[in-house]
Amino acid sequence: MLGALVALASCIGVGTNTPEKHPDLKWTNGGSSVSGSIVVDSNWRWTHIKGETKNCYDGNLWSDKYCPDAATCGKNCVLEGADYSGTYGVTTSGDAATLKFVTHGQYSTNVGSRLYLLKDEKTYQMFNLVGKEFTFTVDVSNLPCGLNGALYFVQMDSDGGMAKYPDNQAGAKYGTGYCDAQCPTDLKFINGIPNSDGWKPQKNDKNSGNGKYGSCCSEMDIWEANSMATAYTPHVCDKLEQTRCSGSACGQNGGGDRFSSSCDPDGCDFNSWRMGNKTFWGPGLIVDTKKPVQVVTQFVGSGGSVTEIKRKYVQGGKVIDNSMTNIAAMSKQYNSVSDEFCQAQKKAFGDNDSFTKHGGFRQLGATLSKGHVLVLSLWDDHDVNMLWLDSVYPTNSNKPGADRGPCKTSSGVPSDVESQNADSTVKYSDIRFGAIDSTYSK
To answer: 318: domain range?
Structure first.
């Protein structure tokens, strides 16, 4: 009993200053309308002293006074409820969610957001994508170079980790439990306790830092895009659950080699521009980013097995198949993602095939069948300015695969986009989930 009391004393609790009211968001499952809602990630939330308004975390630093160590920090500090529109620039209407890039609130300036689809007040909606189709409509017309409107799935726990980690008293209701294939160490809370030990502020981001631990899990990037470039990318991890890492086991984020973690950081991406078609995605092109577009992603397979990920777009009443590859070093053309495509792409570009190393589609099927949480986000990139998505990266490279989009290599600097494109938005709407070829008009 004493152990339980100690754990409870060091847990991260919740505040009472702002009621947590999740914005409603309707979506469609198998043709039936579902009344869901969304919740903002705990990393964005105000963290303060229990019963007071003094900050536990301010700027990119934990308080030395209130957070000398993680246990004391958890005892002292609470997560606060969210003002979604006023603080985070997030609004919903019916089946649509709009995310604003920079929001100047009463007490702070917020940049970007990360949100999750909820089944109920305390539980994330879980999706098993195997043999299914996931469809949504997106408007990226107001997303310039350097921004990323990302919609993706990660293998988070459905309750945000409350059952697995007794120290977590906030759970899914307050957006806890995040993980992805980059094993991020910038998370303020991992496994229910503050990640304050060893915390170091990031030199190039006044709002972020990195702690001793990271949080790893498999990730399916359905959508990473702005008006100039887009990609969809599966990433897999060796373990089929959220796992805390430290040091080089977190890969590059933990100070190790990029490929030293138990996850595949690069993934196997299909970016039409990078794969040789520069007239497919963009303003006025085949898929015209000046207008909303319906995005259809099909996970071909059954049971715990996925063999192929297909992509279609619907715009102006027309179904547009994904572009074909046009890479000289690839002897065959592809317009979908599979083990065969991934291995051919990695070989042609001379890239590290960590996707195959960590199990490829065999592992992808295994993780997807466990159920994943849907993430809606908008962000800028303080590491490499989003050049990996929409420009030439590495910037001094002329090897195949380095040319990823039409944006200048000088674009995407966070201080520039945050000041010049503060009013940028992405709008996600009409989320649909069901049998393959059932969620869009053919």
So the answer is: 26-40+84-435
The yes-or-no verdict on residue 48 having pLDDT over 50 is: yes
Catalytically active residues, by annotation: 219, 224
CB within 8 Å of 3: residues ≥ 6 apart = none
Q: In which element (H, E) is residue 149 found?
A: strand 147-154
CATH number at residue 262: 2.70.100.10
Angle of CA points 154, 13, 40, to nearest 5°: 40
pTM for the predicted model, two decimal places: 0.96
Separation in Å, CA 399 to CA 187, 329, 347, 439 = 34, 11, 12, 39
> Closest Cα to residue 156, out of 28, 41, 270?
41
Task: Say whether the peptide bond before residue 166 is cis (omega within 30 degrees of 0).
Answer: no
What confidence category does residue 167 fall into, taking pLDDT thresholds of 50, 70 and 90? confident
Count Cβ atoms within 10 A of the Cβ of residue 204 and give its class: 0-12 exposed, 13-18 middle, 19 or more buried: exposed
Number of domains within the chain: 1
Residue 15, domain member (yes or no): no
